[in-house]
């Protein structure tokens, strides 16, 4: 099985999620440091929707100026535009496998798709 994680190595939850994936036998992991390799807008929209979230629910508020800039009050398309142009606004980690996509907070949520 292949697993793709959109990862921020500075994030403890992201590191713990990656460790779970790496410790799972038979899983080949692709790590995308999304702050260095940003999402395309289409991919971002897809993983958020596949995880069962709205763009507003996927906003990273802590450590960003998202609330000051009014992102949570914007419509979904505007939020996606902002996230695509500034990946720091995307909460993490997201993991995608053939079994689906999960927003892995807490990190054990990844087990649902491994």
UniProtKB/TrEMBL annotation:
Protein name: Arsenate reductase
InterPro entries: Arsenate_reductase (IPR006659), Arsenate_reductase-like (IPR006660), Thioredoxin-like_sf (IPR036249)
Annotated EC: 1.20.4.1
GO molecular function, one term: arsenate reductase (glutaredoxin) activity
Originating organism: Sphingobium cupriresistens LL01
CDD domains: ArsC_ArsC
Similarity section: Belongs to the ArsC family.
Keywords on record: Arsenical resistance, Oxidoreductase
Family matches, as SUPFAM superfamilies: Thioredoxin-like
Taxonomy, superkingdom: Bacteria
GO terms classed as biological process: response to arsenic-containing substance
Uppermost EC category: oxidoreductase
């Amino acid at each position: 099985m292949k697993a793709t994680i959109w990862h921020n190595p500075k994030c403890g939850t992201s590191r713990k999620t990656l460790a779970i994936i790496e410790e799972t036998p038979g899983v080949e992991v692709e790590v995308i440091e999304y702050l260095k390799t940003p999402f395309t807008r289409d991919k971002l929209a897809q993983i958020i929707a596949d995880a069962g979230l709205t763009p507003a629910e996927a906003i990273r508020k802590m450590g960003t100026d998202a609330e000051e800039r009014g992102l949570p009050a914007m419509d979904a398309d505007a939020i996606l535009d902002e996230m695509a142009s500034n990946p720091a606004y995307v909460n993490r980690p997201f993991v995608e496998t053939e079994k689906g996509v999960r927003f892995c907070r807490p990190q054990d949520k990844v087990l649902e798709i491994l």
